[in-house]
Amino acid sequence: MKFAIAIETGTKKTAFGVVVPDLPGCFSAGDTVEEAFDNAREAIETHCEIIAESNGDVPVTRSLSDWQADPQFKGWTWGIVEVPIEKYFGPAEKINITVPARILRRIDEYAQKHGDTRSGFLVRAAEQAMRQ
C-alpha cells in the first residue's frame, strides 16, 4: 500500500522528521533523507501491525495533493512510500467473481493509470464503500 509522508527538513543539530498523515500518531525521523524514508517504512509497518492486532482498519488514505494543500504541513517536503501491510490483515484469498467485460476493462485501465493492480483497486473500492 502507498502512503504519503511529510518530511520536515533537518539541520546539523536535528534529524529529518517524518509524519505519516494518513496514520494518526505514526511518525519517525532520520539523520539523512534516505534514513528518514527507511524509518518511515518501518514505522508504518509497526503502526499497521498494531492496528491489525486490535482488529482495526487502516484509515482511508487521502491523495498527496490533498495533504500538500493542508496548511499544517506548509513548507514540508513530500514523498510516497510503498509498504506491504497486507500481510498483517490475513493471507490473501483467491476468489472467482463475474464482472461484465466492459467494466473489467475500465477497472484495469483505472488501476493501471493509478499505479495499482486490479485486486488492489477492488479491495480499496470495497473498503471505501463499506466505510460509508
The biggest beta sheet reads: 4 strands, antiparallel
Mean pLDDT comes to 92
Q: What structural class results from the helix and strand content? A: alpha+beta
Helix count from the secondary structure assignment: 4
Q: What is the radius of gyration computed over CA atoms, rounded to a whole number of angstroms?
A: 17 Å
CATH architecture of the largest domain: 2-Layer Sandwich
Could you please say which CATH topology of the largest domain applies here? Answer: Double Stranded RNA Binding Domain
Q: What portion of residues belong to β-strands?
A: 15-25%
Indicate the percent of residues in helices.
40-55%
Poorly predicted regions: none
Strand order of the largest sheet: 3-2-1-4
Principal-axes geometry comes out as elongated
Number of domains: 2
Q: What is the first-to-last residue Cα distance?
A: 21 Å
Number of strands: 4
Description:
This protein is an alpha+beta fold and 132 residues long. It folds into two domains: 1-91, Double Stranded RNA Binding Domain (2-Layer Sandwich), CATH 3.30.160.250; 92-132. It contains four helices and four strands. The chain has helices spanning 33-53, 64-68, 101-113, 118-131, and strands at 2-8, 16-19, 27-30, 77-82. Strands 3-2-1-4 form a four-stranded antiparallel beta sheet. Strand 2 (16-19) and strand 3 form a beta hairpin. Helix 3 (101-113) packs across helix 4 (118-131). The longest helix is centred in the N-terminal third of the chain and has 21 residues, at 33-53. The mean pLDDT is 92.
